[in-house]
Amino acid sequence: MKIERTALICLLLIACCVAARRPEPGPSLFAIRLQPGQDLRREIEQFAKRENLQAGFIATCVGSLDRTALRLANQKEVTTFSGYMEIVSLVGTLSPDGVHLHLSVADETGKMFGGHLVPGSRVYTTAELVLGEARELQFHRVIDPATTYHELTVEARDN
What we know:
19% of the residues lie in helices and 52% in strands. The protein is α+β, with helices and mostly antiparallel strands. The chain has a single domain (2-156), classed as CATH 3.30.1330.80. The strands form two sheets. Strands 1, 2, 3, 4, 5 and 6 form a six-stranded antiparallel sheet that branches. The protein has a two-stranded antiparallel ribbon with strand order 7-8. The relative contact order is 0.24.
């Protein structure tokens, strides 16, 4: 009886140690600040790769650009805006297969522009970002036959 009780206590202790090593549910959060001259999209892509984000997202971004490169709605070509722009919002998903980012900016008159963020948007004074990762999920981007674009697929992550 004493051996069985000791074995049971050992099993419970092992189970507690294994449970303690599992990541807590919920997002991981990161905060970064980009410097003048850095490319907004490229820095986000490099950060996601460096941190091995599997289901990343942009929580918020504020800052300014002195060159803004966007692919506007339903356009194939990139439109570049020269001049100072305030970042009004940046949203998107980050996966090992790529990112999908939408940026809204405002010029000195308050006129807003928005579209897909592409390489070529240069930080003017700063870009302060808060990014997250949903640790329970795995994002992938695969060609969707209906849209012909790399679209997001979401799966549960094996931890």
